[in-house]
Automatic annotation (TrEMBL):
The keyword ATP-binding applies. It comes from the Bacteria. Belongs to the ThiD family. GO terms for biological process: thiamine biosynthetic process. The lineage of its organism: Bacteria, Bacillati, Bacillota, Bacilli, Bacillales. This is Hydroxymethylpyrimidine/phosphomethylpyrimidine kinase. The keyword Nucleotide-binding applies. NCBIfam families: HMP-P_kinase (TIGR00097). It comes from Brochothrix campestris FSL F6-1037.
């Protein structure tokens, strides 16, 4: 099985392209990659960004799609509107499921998506996406809402579905509470997955890793809700077995899922 990630490079190896490829590999999926930007990054922060031109992003993507039978594609850091437009231009005529992780701001505060690009994400990328996986601050930017309550989450998910994306996973990592709960929404329904919240600072790359796991599992043909449950196991185990690498927000442990053979309990709820 082959999957593709369109994202930024994290020299520190915990997020971005590197997290995506490690996750694909651990889940038994062959990973291909389109790099949108280089970041000079470690667990302490982003120390520089060098974007790739939109036309070269397109060239990478076309090289992959004209040769490989790609079963699922994810996007991460897209950096600017020209890159988003270039990606949409290539993908709009394919039927490969597209998972959009709307990466905007790194843990240390660096901008991984220019503000002027939010509109291109809303108006061009969302209509061709199968799924998007915002965290709470990203959902706030994409919808212009303040999200505090369950009703706010539902309303923001409805706004995102109205943009044309078929499924929305609202990630709960930034909310408070004993559990880290993520909710899958579609028109007319919802399904949630939760695991105990872990008290750790080693959460660099959680969002990338979770969305890459969903992408890999969809590429393998898992039904959607099973893919969400298994991806939740992958990210919970990656957070709960920290590697203690670096002096700042350490990366998650991509080895853990395989090492414990996916053994992890996920609470599910479908109202
Ligand atoms: N402390 C934690 N304990 C358990 N699960 C967590 C924790 N933090 C995040 N998660 C889970 O990790 C996944 C990513 O969620 P999160 O909201 O952190 O994404 P993100 O904000 O995109 O990532 P990042 O904060 O690294 O940018 C979700 O499944 C979320 O529930
Ligand atoms: C190149 C790159 N892409 C994405 C993120 C955000 O990572 P996450 O939200 O998964 O922590 C990052 N820090 N660097």
């Amino acid at each position: 099985m082959i999957a593709c990630t369109i994202a930024g490079s994290d020299s520190g190896g915990g997020a971005g392209i590197q997290a995506d490829l490690k996750t694909f590999q651990e889940l038994g999926v062959f990973g291909t990659s389109v790099i949108t930007a280089l970041t000079a990054q470690n667990t302490l922060g982003v120390h520089g960004i060098s974007p790739i031109t939109s036309s070269f992003v397109q060239r990478q993507l076309q090289a992959i799609l004209t040769d490989f039978d790609v079963k699922a594609i994810k996007t991460g850091m897209l950096f600017d509107a020209t890159i988003i437009e270039g990606v949409v231009d290539v993908l709009k005529n394919t039927s490969i499921p597209l998972i959009v992780d709307p990466v905007m701001i790194a843990k240390g505060g660096a901008n991984l998506l220019q503000q002027q690009a939010v509109r291109a994400m809303q108006e061009q990328l969302m209509p061709i996406a199968f799924m998007c996986t915002p965290n709470i601050p990203e959902a706030e930017v994409l919808t212009g809402r303040t999200i505090r309550t369950q009703q706010d989450i539902q309303a923001a998910a409805n706004d995102l579905l109205a943009l044309g994306v078929q499924y929305v996973v609202m990630k709960g990592g930034h909310l408070e509470g004993l559990h880290a709960t993520d909710i899958l929404f579609w028109k007319g329904g919802q399904f949630s997955v939760a695991t105990p919240r872990i008290d750790t600072k080693d959460t660099h790359g959680t969002g990338c890793t979770f969305s890459a796991a969903i992408t890999a599992l969809l590429a393998k043909g898992f039904p959607l809700q099973e893919a969400i449950i298994e991806a939740k196991k992958f990210i919970h185990l990656a957070i709960s077995h920290p590697l203690h690498i670096g002096k700042g927000h350490g990366p998650t442990n991509h080895f853990a899922y395989k090492q414990v053979q996916g053994k992890c309990e996920v609470m599910t709820h479908e109202p």
